[in-house]
């Protein structure tokens, strides 16, 4: 089967530090791929290469089998790869609807939109409302609420909804539960399930083993700049994963 | 087996418990908002209400204290005339401050543009419309230079505009030869420059064309800031530049356009100022830079960017106008006007900080 998104032998150095050393990654259709690794293993550099924030020194990235190069996150986004950043990349003083369409606003039709560049605000609000309710997030009552008045979990919800609304190929989530309480984390994990059931594969980077094990179909373990192994969460325990990750145990040969 | 691997085996179990489904004890009773909290919420949602309330209260107070003299249609329209220039400066300043910048050179850009307009048309005898166009272009170029220095060299706007303020002011002196162009000469050679000084009378109130232009600038900017993508991006860039960049906004291009548009508005202000003052004086509006910031801040726009409204700047300018007019009609010394204004600035910023604390 052809991977939706594939990284082949990616190298990236920062001066003398090797962040990625011939790293590979494959993401298939209809799956959640967990990516774990110790601090400094290079997993965030790998993810940044996939979402366009970092340009690899060598190696290639394939989307549906076609080679792609991303000069910036915007270019990656245009191909249908959406990223939910750890800091969420939301503008707190703008409304939920504003944030969802930031950088890709819809203009009004006709003269008002074409020449005066007026925004179709009711249209965008409607779409934002639809997207949020599709993901079961309409506990957020007012789409014109400013993002800074939302709780951490709700903000995460908005960021995920934005990615889900525009991500047609892949959604990458960087530590989506790191800043959240127990209940809010639960909600985000459910959201990941929702997005997956809509047929968009997800890459989930997290330090939280229970979360990764709960939602992932396969787990990519990154160590010393490259992929150490990919394990099935059903056949391996969390302690195994941590042991592989830290080098305390040899990975299963495959 | 070493201790380390035993620890490793324990750790996930611990995490397992934290993340497990039936741990829902993190629910909180929603705090019942008290009155103060409600006010804070309301002001947070409606940032322009603060200057509106201050404006109405101050008009009412001065009406009571200074009596009918203050409340006359003529005096109220005079206030609007007096704040026209500061209002236009504040409109441009608001754009810059919304992007988390500040422009100390606004008045210098305006005076430079007015010098170009006067010099070319009156002293060099070129067509007035051409002189106005050159003046407009000079404003846009000055704004562009500010924006270029801010984006290209990553310099803080405060420092950039502190520098360009001096540079532009020096150019004003150079091009004008520190000579004023007299009102009489303008009237004789380039009456078009006085266009915005003309006025209409309605029931004893007197409105200059310049005041109408100022109101028009505010209306247009309100629509642009609230109804177009460009306007939303101004807020997004000022709010969190990195987030805006990740959302796909080309923030540098955005900032460059904001500074250039501000320069263009200032050049319009230059034309209006010739009508208002009558002459072109290289030393006029020396305090305009700070006056514009005062109006913006009193108008409830946050100096940290991303928050505030363009209408606030208009109200801010009007509040300043009402204070000076009211206090002088009430017979107080000018020093008390400054005193009151200073207190108002500090109160406005304090209030802004309090309202912003809502998110924590």
Describe the structure.
The complex is a heterodimer of chains A (254) and B (360). The mean pLDDT of chain A is 87. Chain A folds into two domains: 1-80 and 168-249, P-loop containing nucleotide triphosphate hydrolases (Rossmann fold); 90-166, no CATH class. Chain A is built from nine helices and ten strands. Chain A is globular and about 65 Å long. Chain A is 34% helix and 24% strand. In chain A, strands 6-7-8-3-9-10 form a six-stranded mixed β-sheet, sandwiched between helices. With 254 residues, chain A is of the alpha/beta class. Chain A has helices spanning 43-51, 73-78, 96-100, 110-114, 121-134, 152-166, 182-197, 209-215, 238-246; strands at residues 5-14, 17-27, 32-37, 58-63, 66-68, 81-84, 170-174, 202-205, 218-223, 226-231. In chain B, helix 5 runs parallel beside helix 10 and helix 14 (288-298) packs across helix 15. In chain B, strands 1-2 form a two-stranded antiparallel sheet. Chain B has a domain at 71-284. The two termini of chain B are 47 Å apart. With 360 residues, chain B is mainly α. Chain B contains 16 helices and two strands. Chain B is 73% helix and 2% strand. In chain B, strand 1 and strand 2 form a beta hairpin. Residues 5-29 of chain B have low confidence and may be disordered. At the A-B interface, helix 2, helix 7, helix 8 and helix 9 of A face helix 1, helix 11 and helix 12 of B.
Major beta sheet of chain A, specifics? 6 strands, mixed
Strand content of chain A: 15-25%
Helix segment tally of chain B: 16
The structural class of chain B is mainly alpha
Shape of chain A: globular
- Uncertain stretches of chain B: 5-29
* CATH architecture level-2 label of the largest domain in chain A: 3-Layer(aba) Sandwich
Mean of the pLDDT scores of chain B? 86
Number of strands of chain A: 10
Order of helices and strands of chain A: EEEHEEHEHHHHEHEHEEH
Q: Biggest interface: chains and residue counts?
A: A-B, 45 and 40 residues
Strand count, sense and closure of the main sheet of chain B? 2 strands, antiparallel
Helix-strand topology string of chain B: HHHHHHHHHEEHHHHHHH
Distance between the termini of chain A: 18 Å
CATH domain class of the largest domain in chain A: Alpha Beta
Helix content of chain B: over 70%
């Amino acid at each position: 089967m052809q991977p939706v998104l594939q990284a082949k032998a990616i190298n990236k150095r920062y001066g003398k530090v090797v962040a990625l050393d011939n790293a590979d990654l494959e993401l298939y259709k209809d799956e959640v791929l967990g990516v774990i690794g110790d601090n400094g293993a290079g997993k965030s550099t790998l993810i940044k290469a996939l979402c366009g924030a970092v340009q690899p020194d060598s190696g290639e990235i394939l989307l549906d089998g076609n080679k792609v190069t991303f000069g910036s996150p915007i270019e990656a986004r245009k191909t249908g790869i959406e990223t939910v950043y750890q800091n969420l990349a939301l503008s707190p003083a703008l409304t939920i609807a504003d944030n969802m369409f930031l950088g890709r606003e819809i203009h009004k039709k006709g003269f008002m939109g074409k020449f005066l560049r007026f925004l179709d605000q009711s249209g965008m609000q409607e779409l934002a409302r639809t997207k949020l309710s599709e993901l079961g997030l309409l506990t957020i009552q007012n789409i014109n609420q400013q993002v800074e008045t939302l709780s951490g979990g709700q903000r995460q919800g908005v960021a995920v909804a934005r990615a889900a609304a525009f991500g047609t190929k892949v959604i990458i989530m960087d530590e989506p539960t790191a800043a959240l309480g127990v209940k809010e984390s639960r909600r985000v994990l459910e959201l990941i399930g929702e997005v997956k059931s809509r047929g968009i594969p997800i890459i989930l980077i997290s330090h939280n083993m229970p979360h990764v094990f709960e939602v992932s179909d396969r787990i990519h373990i990154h160590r010393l700049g490259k992929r150490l192994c990919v394990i099935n969460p059903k056949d391996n325990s969390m302690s195994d994963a941590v042991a592989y990750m830290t080098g305390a145990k040899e990975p299963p040969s495959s | 087996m070493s201790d380390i691997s035993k620890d490793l085996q324990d750790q996930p179990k611990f995490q397992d418990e934290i993340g497990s489904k039936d741990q829902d004890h993190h629910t909180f009773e929603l705090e019942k908002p008290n009155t103060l909290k409600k006010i804070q919420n309301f002001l947070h949602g409606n940032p322009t209400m603060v200057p509106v309330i201050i404006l109405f209260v101050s008009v009412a107070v001065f009406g009571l204290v200074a009596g009918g003299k203050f409340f006359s249609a003529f005096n109220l329209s005079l206030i609007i005339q007096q704040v026209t220039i500061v209002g236009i400066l504040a409109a441009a300043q608001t754009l810059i401050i919304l992007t988390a910048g500040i422009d100390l050179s606004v008045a210098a850009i305006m005076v430079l543009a007015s010098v170009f307009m006067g010099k070319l048309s009156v002293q060099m005898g070129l067509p007035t419309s051409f002189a106005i166009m050159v003046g407009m272009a000079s404003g846009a170029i000055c704004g562009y230079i500010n924006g270029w220095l801010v984006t290209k060299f990553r310099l803080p706007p405060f420092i950039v505009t502190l520098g360009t303020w001096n540079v532009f002011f020096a150019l004003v002196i150079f091009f004008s030869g520190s000579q004023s162009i007299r009102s009489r000469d303008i009237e004789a050679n380039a009456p078009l420059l006085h266009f915005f000084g003309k006025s209409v009378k309605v029931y004893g109130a007197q409105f200059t064309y310049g005041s109408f232009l100022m109101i028009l600038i505010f209306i247009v900017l309100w629509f642009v800031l609230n109804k177009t993508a460009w306007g939303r991006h101004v807020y997004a860039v000022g709010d969190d530049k990195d987030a805006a960049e990740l959302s796909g906004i080309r923030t540098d291009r955005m900032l460059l356009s904001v500074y250039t548009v501000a320069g263009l508005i200032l050049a319009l202000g230059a034309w209006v100022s010739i009508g208002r003052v009558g002459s072109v004086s290289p030393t006029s509006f020396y305090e305009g830079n700070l006056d514009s910031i005062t109006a913006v801040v009193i108008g409830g726009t946050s100096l940290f960017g991303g928050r505030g409204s363009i209408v606030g700047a208009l109200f801010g300018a009007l509040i300043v106008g009402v204070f000076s007019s009211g206090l002088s009609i009430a017979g107080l010394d000018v020093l008390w006007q400054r005193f009151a204004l200073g207190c108002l600035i500090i109160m406005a910023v304090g209030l802004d900080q309090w309202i912003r604390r809502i998110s924590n």
